[in-house]
Specification:
Chain lengths: ~150, ~150
DNA sequence: CTAGAACCTAGAGTCGTGTCTAGATCAACA
DNA sequence: TGTTGATCTAGACACGACTCTAGGTTCTAG
């Protein structure tokens, strides 16, 4: 039932160093208990919480924000609105990130397609013109890439 | 036609420090020229490239990878496959990021909905049970949150 | 001519997020 | 008993990506 730090590291994917670091940073929902010999003991719900933490982290939520959230939760009921505000804030942030990534993806796919066309038509066909000081790489980011087809970067 | 570093900073959104840093790091497509007095001069196409850089950066492409790419481009034709490989690699990375973010979003929306329900039913209705050492926060991440409705974090 | 703004270089500092080290303790096993 | 491996603490180090500082030059306006 009790889990050692090594076990938790193995199962959470975090390093033992990171687990101690997270504890110092106050990121655990409930304070980590110790055995009489000073060793940490964890439980299943710590693993569950760590899984959520990891998810939030991977979506760009900072440790500081996670700490804020967990502090609110530790204070008990009465601050649900604040917790909601925090969650919604990050939700917006994540949505914005997704939009930005989609946008980047469009740009990159366009670029990949151009490269594929060039490569398909034979590699040596003037993809790069070093004597032309202005390279038209940025053209796809704008709207007029059809006017000067030779892409170089 | 020529742009000063300050002008480029203003229009690119990067700081003059960052622009000099990017130059040191070899991130410019064409080497930055200087006036006789040593001051840098930029052109429109640098701004265009910086816009792309910024987009790639915001999608998590590292400066190291951008440098690799621009180095390939500077080498001229013949390495299009490598450039494609690089782009596709990052494309995959971005796609994975989007999936991960969508997933996080689902978790968070679920959580927000739960909070809203609780708040709507009156705030004091046992959202938090400090005497219950195991908090069920992670339950939504799994599948069995219906079994123990009191959510706490 | 002078004040202030913009620029230059080299290098130091910052921030977030860990990661690693040194030196000690403790448990389990041959 | 001795060794191996897991754990502990405090604090140093790493890394990416800037950001800032000090000290100096140059441009521009009044």
């Amino acid at each position: 039932m009790d889990l050692s730090i090594g076990e938790v590291a193995r199962r959470s994917g975090l390093s033992v160093h990171a687990l101690r670091f997270y504890e110092r940073e106050g990121l655990f929902a409930n304070p980590v208990r110790r055995l009489s010999n000073g060793r940490r003991i964890y439980h299943e719900e710590d693993l569950e919480w760590l899984a959520i933490c990891t998810k939030l982290r991977s979506s760009g939520m900072s440790l500081a924000m996670i700490r804020q959230y967990i502090e609110l939760a530790r204070q008990g009921p009465g601050n649900e609105h604040e917790r909601l505000r925090l969650l919604r804030h990050h939700e917006n942030h994540v949505e914005a990130q997704i939009r930005e990534l989609q946008d980047t993806l469009d740009v990159m796919r366009h670029k990949v397609r151009i490269y594929e066309d060039h490569v398909a038509r034979g590699e040596a066909d003037r993809l790069w013109n070093p004597s032309h000081p202005s390279h038209s790489d940025a053209a796809q980011a704008g709207t007029h890439q059809d006017c000067h087809p030779p892409e170089d970067t």
